[in-house]
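Can anyone check this?
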Amino acid sequence: MNIIEDLINYTVNNYSEEEWYIFYDSLILVKKYNYLEYIKSESINKLVNILPIVKNSLTKIILIEIIVNYLCCQYDVDEEELLFDDNEKLLDKYIDALAENKININIKDIEACLKCFIDLGIEKNKIIHQLLKKLDKKIAIKILIFLIEYNDENILQQFSEIYEEVKIAQRVYYRSNIISTFILIVHPLCSKYECINCISTQYSELTNSIEDWGWNTPGATKYLIEKNIFTEKEGKILEHLGELLLKNVDLNSKEIRDLYFEFFENKDPYDVMFTLP
């Protein structure tokens, strides 16, 4: 028995609804454990068995995420039978808990959990139906941005109206992510104060955003242009930045700084960021 199994056993055996936060904090530690597949099924079964008596929605969410992640790790794709025969009920409980707890939800965790449900055999259409039925539309769209893929014909046929909204949201999401990273690199003050500014990007450090800038050859932004995420002119500017970064051109050089003004053309950056071609 490893320390995580000890932790599960201790917290389950000492569970108290009045002190749910202790149980919740323990679950956080369990969730951070990177080797769920090595936990014995008996320990996970204890978490499954305690689920019906857990009242706090935030605790339910993380509890189900741990259970589903474990099941997904253990699932044998060559077998027709699932390891757990109540996955649809588990999904119902999960989305009900999300509906009860609208404030403290983590979209990335939800995305990962729902993809595990899909891997365990739950149809994507059923998940989407539940999300749209039980969650606020804005929250549902936030989740569906990552769940619905382009050209998913089944989704298109059954959820045509929401599908179009999600496609637009996806385009805005990718556009705003790329432009915010672009600003971090080319704007002199953003790069200078990267450690203290509060502008949100997908990168915690400037060096990471530079290393991961993937548009550095002619035509690299073609798919972004074809998906109507960027204009052809904008795409060429992104590629030009990539070429300069490959050559290790100084970030403070006029050549790089001029890209900011060339891209935004004296327009409000936020207007540009959230306006699709």
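Reply from J.R.: I decoded it. Residues 3-147 form one domain.
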